[in-house]
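STRUCTURE:
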């Protein structure tokens, strides 16, 4: 799943449930964000190590193959994904927000807007 970039930020949606992943991508696209999907942490790492730059990551914690916790450990260990300042980037990702499923679209967008003020 990749939605066209509409002049907005790119958000990586890491979610093992395909219908949920697609629904989140549609919500994000309607708000002008580009959405790139990954079915688990391993796929997310592959995308980030490839040609995807994510301005924000929506991360499911409970997934098969590589869960969200494992993904974060691997991401923090990889200097190429840390984009210079590992501690600052990791802290920002950990504290951005927490949403329970089913995700309320307006609550999701509020969390995302806080990350991209203005």
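SEQUENCE:
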């Amino acid at each position: 799943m990749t939605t066209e970039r509409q002049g907005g930020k790119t958000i990586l949606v890491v979610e093992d449930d395909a219908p949920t992943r697609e629904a989140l991508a549609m919500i994000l696209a309607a708000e002008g964000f580009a959405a790139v999907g990954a079915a688990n942490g391993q796929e997310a790492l592959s995308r980030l190590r490839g040609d995807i730059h994510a301005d924000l990551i929506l991360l499911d914690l409970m997934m098969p193959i590589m869960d969200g916790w494992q993904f974060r450990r691997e991401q923090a260990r990889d200097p190429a994904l840390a984009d210079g300042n590992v501690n600052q980037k990791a802290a920002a990702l950990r504290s951005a927000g927490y949403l329970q499923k089913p995700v309320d679209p307006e609550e999701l967008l509020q969390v995302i807007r806080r990350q991209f003020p203005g």
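REMARK: The mean pLDDT is 82.
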